[in-house]
Design goal:
Chain B: It comes from Emticicia aquatica. The structure holds two protein chains of two kinds. By secondary structure, chain A is of the alpha+beta class. Chain A is 39% helix and 27% strand. Chain B has a seven-stranded mixed β-sheet, with helices on both faces. The chains are: A alpha+beta, B alpha/beta.
């Protein structure tokens, strides 16, 4: 830690700042992965551009209501109701859908 | 009129497309390949009127024309290329009416490509149950193309659809309603149009957005398109996401005019069932019980018809031998051909049962839940939950199973799945298992109702399954990939399996097995008969006369049997077997089994046929028995003990659990991985595994 600090103190500080900033964002933004079973939410936007293409195609559009149906026995994947049907996705994927 | 017009069936997965295909074509269907790819192409024929037959093309189910897997890519390949021989004259887009909004996305995209279309609203009964009613007449007016109401499961509305197809083919109507194009898109359209002569704006933009996926274009044209994309700094992802959002907005406003939703949504039956089937304890208990039930019934129910077939073949052989003169041709017919055919026919009951169960699991919608249950477990072993479908289907046959791995988007997950799938015991291994288990495992009941032989069979399947997991786990560390994959999957509602559909699947698979595997097995049986009946130079005659001079007083029957066995020993096949005997002796096999090992390199199922041919040649003709009895009576000439002892039988069983003995699998792995690297690695790792395990088992048990 010390050596790195001597080499690039600015970068290290910046990085630490970034990490704490990320934490704040994670805490404030609620995603589908944070829903409890039976809880509903409205989709706001997506964190992952590439994955959002597939999600959009499957009817997960901004302003659409989603409900968490189930969490698979081992905690992943999860099941949601969206646009009148059931969709299953991994927790990591659900965490890219940001709710309002 | 030009030769047959092509009507393509398109739609989302689970929209009932395949039952419509069966309703339209009946048994007039065949399976081929799309050129260049190994995706099954299902084509059937349908009579629309006394003067008009059309070809019905069943395209893979997809959610949009932006493919995420190889299967889905076929849809784009066909629809984006009007010069493709499979390019449809008309598209019938099958839509799940209970989920119309999402289904309409694909319909709009296909229409905008310029294909005349019919929208077929399927599963209206399901929609009605959830309180949705659709004014299809009004929808048809808005879209400007025919909208047909269907219940493909029950076969309701099929005649009306045929009539509509007939009319549409006379006066083709298209529905063009593309998203708004910005200035950049317009410029790209102008350039693509100038270079490729494509007047359809949406199609031209697909050329730009998906150039890499349009294989028919060839490298130079793909390069040209890339240059255009670069020149205008065209972002295909942004184009796609803007298009999707705009289309959904447009679809929503259309559907608002034609759909009436009433009543508060209650918990549906599907949700209630999911509570149980996805329960953290009951979910797994039920899944394992279902698997267990499958094996018990494959073994016990199928046994009776298999015995009939076995006895029937023995009877035919007996009959032929006693009524025809005793010469070489008759011997070829009975010991070569009939024995070989018997080896094929006897598997039919088991294959039929296995495919029946697998297709019921898929039909009912349960397979998708298995994927959910297994995803996290199986991900530790380098695969995805979606690998469960190939793994389970490979209990029937590894070839379609490896092809079904195409639905797995990630290359690494898919490759690992392909590499380990042949470790799952396929139906071709069943006859080997069945016969050897019947020889060495007592047919007792454990705890009153578990059949011991069924338990042993399940044990072998589990061994294959766990070794597949282990192999996947090892490969996970050996293969490196930075590629991202996703799981996102629709959970279809539970449905009662359509027995007709299950019947179709069974018929199709049994037919494929009998004709494809049958050809190989019968050819090998005949070759084997020749090799086992003739030998190099005059060795057979010399050995015969030696036996005769040594045993001048032996009674007729015993002499015959002795003669037969020296004849086999000195034949070409005997020489082959003897040649490899040193290598297989540590595994507990003699040269006769060696012959069967060599021939079964073509396909495992040949093993039993070969053994049956070899031992029927070696046996005395007066007392023709079933395959099982023949093996039981076989005695090792050196030790005087039964050849198929417990140690040898288990060693063989283990050998066949692991050995990669199937040319078709190697060929399909070659096609799917586009090279010889992976099939060769697979052949080597599985052969080494088989040899070492069989060696250990034999040494331990003997």
């Amino acid at each position: 830690m010390k050596i790195i600090f001597i080499l690039e103190p600015k970068k290290v500080i910046l990085r630490l700042f970034e990490i704490s900033l990320n934490k704040i964002i994670v805490q404030t933004e609620k995603t589908v992965a944070d829903l409890k079973i039976g809880e509903r939410g409205i989709i706001n936007n997506f964190k992952d551009a590439a994955m959002s293409l597939k999600l959009l195609e499957m009817g997960c559009l901004p302003d659409t209501e989603v409900m968490l149906d189930f969490i698979a026995p081992l905690g992943c994947p999860v099941g949601i109701t969206v646009a009148g049907y059931h969709l299953s996705l991994r927790k990591r994927e659900a965490a890219t859908i940001v709710l309002k | 009129m030009k030769n047959k017009q092509v009507v393509a069936l398109l739609g989302n997965p689970n929209s009932g497309k395949s039952s419509l295909f069966n309703q339209l074509t009946g048994l007039r269907q065949k399976i081929g390949n799309f050129p260049g790819v190994t995706v099954d192409k299902k084509v059937g024929f349908c009579r629309l009127s006394s003067s008009m037959d059309v070809e019905i093309l069943d395209l893979p189910g997809t959610y949009s024309i932006y493919p995420n897997s190889l299967d889905e890519q076929v849809v784009l390949e066909v629809l984006a290329n009007p010069k493709n021989p499979d390019y449809p004259d008309l598209a019938v887009v099958v839509a799940d009416a209970s989920n119309l909004k999402r289904n309409m996305l694909l319909f709009e995209q296909i229409s905008d490509l310029g294909v005349p279309a019919i929208l077929a609203l399927n599963m209206l009964d399901v929609a009605e149950e959830s309180g949705i009613s659709i004014n299809s007449g009004k929808l048809s007016k808005i879209l400007g193309i025919p909208v047909v109401e269907l219940n493909a499961r029950e076969g309701i509305g099929i005649e009306g659809l045929k009539h509509t197809i007939f009319n549409q083919l006379q006066h083709k109507k298209t529905h063009i309603n593309p998203p708004a194009f910005d200035k950049k898109s317009e410029n790209i359209f102008d350039e693509v149009n100038a270079k490729f002569g494509i007047g359809n704006k949406y199609l031209a933009l697909q050329y730009a957005a998906q150039a890499q996926k349009l294989m028919f274009l060839g490298e130079t044209q793909q390069k040209d398109l890339e240059d255009i994309v670069k020149k205008y700094d065209f972002n295909a992802d942004k184009f796609q996401s803007a298009e999707t959002i705009e289309r959904y907005r447009d679809i929503s406003s259309t559907l608002n005019e034609v759909i009436i939703e009433e009543g508060v949504k209650k918990e549906t039956i599907t949700e209630k069932i999911d509570h149980i089937l996805l329960h953290k304890v009951w979910g797994y208990v039920i899944f394992l019980s279902i698997l267990f039930l499958i094996f018990q019934s494959v073994f016990t129910i199928a046994e009776t018809p298999m015995d009939w077939i076995d006895q029937g073949i023995a009877f035919v052989n007996d009959f032929l031998k006693s009524h025809l003169p005793d010469n070489q041709i008759v011997s070829l017919l009975t010991d070569g051909l009939v024995a070989g055919i018997g080896g094929v026919l006897i598997f039919i009951p088991q294959i039929a049962f296995l495919f029946a169960f697998i297709s019921i699991l898929e039909e009912s919608g349960y397979m998708a839940r298995v994927v959910v249950l297994m995803d996290k477990l199986i991900r530790r072993f380098g695969m995805s939950g979606k690998s469960v479908v190939p793994l389970i289907s490979s209990m029937a046959c590894a070839v379609p199973a490896i092809m079904s791995a195409r639905t797995i988007g990630s290359w690494k997950d898919r490759l690992i799945t392909i590499m380990v799938t042949p470790l799952m015991s396929c139906s071709a291994r069943l006859p080997i298992y069945t016969i050897l288990i019947a020889l060495v495992v007592p047919n007792n009941k454990v705890l009153g109702f578990f059949n011991m032989q069924g338990v042993a069979l399940m044990g072998l399947y589990l061994l294959g399954f766990f070794s597949a997991l282990l192999a996947g786990w090892i490969m996970k560390f050996m293969l490196k990939s930075s590629e991202r994959s996703y799981f996102i999957m629709e959970l279809p509602t539970y449905k009662k399996p359509r027995w007709k559909q299950v019947g179709f699947t069974i018929l199709e698979k049994v037919k494929t097995f009998v004709f494809e595997a049958g050809k190989v097995i019968i050819a090998i049986s005949i070759i084997l008969w020749v090799l086992a009946s003739y030998g190099p130079s005059d060795k057979i005659e010399k050995a015969e006369s030696k036996v005769l001079s040594e045993n001048p007083t032996l009674e007729h029957a015993k002499l015959d049997s002795k003669l037969a066995s020296v004849r086999l020993e000195n034949s070409y096949a005997g020489h082959f077997g003897k040649f490899i005997e040193p290598a297989i002796k540590p595994l507990g096999y003699d040269w006769k089994i060696g012959i069967a090992l060599i021939t079964s390199f073509a396909a495992r199922e040949v093993f039993v046929g070969t053994v049956s041919t070899i031992y029927s040649i070696g046996a005395d003709a007066e007392n023709e028995t079933t395959i099982k009895e023949r093996l039981r009576n076989e005695v090792n000439s050196e030790t005087g003990k039964p050849t198929f002892s417990v140690a040898t039988s288990f060693s063989l069983l283990i050998f066949y659990v692991f050995a990669m003995m199937c040319m078709s699998t190697l060929a399909v792995v070659y096609r799917e991985t586009k090279g010889w690297k992976w099939p060769i690695i697979q052949l080597i790792y599985m052969s080494v595994l088989a040899y070492i395990s069989a060696f250990l088992v034999y040494q331990f048990l003997s």
